[in-house]
Design a protein that fits this description.
239 residues, alpha/beta, TIM Barrel, 8 helices, 38% helix, 23% strand, binds iron/sulfur cluster, EC 1.97.1.4, S-adenosyl-L-methionine, Pyruvate formate-lyase-activating enzyme, lyase, iron-sulfur
Length: 239
């Protein structure tokens, strides 16, 4: 059985997919988001080497708590960086009859990633920015075309997705940014769409790792601003 590197677990999380979930944070990420709240997941070779059998045992321990809607979410880091490992965990979820989700930033995409996302019940797509220039500014990587390919495939397959975007003042707190986002995700089979407020809770981890926090230029949006942007986005999407 395949094994991989796990950063950590969150038991009975309620934010990353429907119901109560076992969230498995996988190690490694190809992006370097300026506001990342998990920079300790970046290094691919770190984390705890873990077998699918170990994870299966953990899933089975928490199955009684999942209820009708809950299940397992693979997050990170970027879980699809370990796509073969994801695929095996998702097969195990399917075998156990457990609902599964993958939370991806869309920074990596290939045939194995496609197989893994095909198998997940829900994909949570965290869109860092909705145009190439801003995406590179947020992620530190010139790979917007990878996200575009992923979106094109999801549009063709009509697989269910939850779409998320972090909103920060000084980054994407404008109607224009909402217009770009609505255009980017048009035609996807979106079950849920969320704008999440930027927060600074990751700053202490950057400090601990000896890294200079890269989002000093950003500020959290006020609740009113976020609500206004949500209305703009809903109107643009015709909701
Ligand atoms: S994709 Fe997630 S884990 Fe990776 S750098 Fe961005 S915020 Fe951090």
């Amino acid at each position: 059985m395949t094994s991989g590197h796990v950063h950590s677990y969150e038991t009975l999380g309620a934010l990353d997919g429907p119901g109560l979930r076992l969230v498995i944070f996988l190690q490694g990420c190809p992006l370097r988001c300026c506001y990342c709240h998990n920079p300790d997941t970046w290094e691919t070779a770190a984390g705890q080497p873990t077998s699918v059998a170990d994870i299966s045992q953990r899933i089975r321990r928490f199955m009684p708590y999942f209820g009708r809607r809950g299940g397992v979410t693979l997050s990170g880091g970027e879980p699809l960086l370990q796509a073969a490992f994801c695929l095996e965990i998702l097969r195990e979820c399917q075998r156990l009859g457990v609902h599964s989700a993958i939370d991806t930033g869309g920074g990596v995409w290939n045939d194995v990633c496609r197989q893994a996302t095909d198998l997940a019940d829900i994909v949570i797509l965290d869109i860092k920015a909705a145009n190439a220039e801003l995406w590179q500014a947020v992620t530190g990587r010139d790979a917007f075309s990878t996200l575009l390919q992923l979106i094109a495939d999801f549009r063709a397959s009509q697989r269910p997705v939850w779409v998320r975007q972090v909103v920060a003042k000084g980054l994407n707190d404008s109607p224009e940014a909402m217009r770009d986002l609505a255009a980017l995700v048009a035609g996807l089979n979106i079950e849920r769409m969320e704008l999440l407020p930027y927060h600074e809770m990751g700053r202490s981890k950057w400090d601990k790792l000896g890294l200079d926090y890269a989002a000093n230029h950003l500020q959290p949006p006020t609740p009113d601003l976020l609500a206004d942007l949500q209305k703009v986005l809903a109107a643009l999407r015709g909701c």
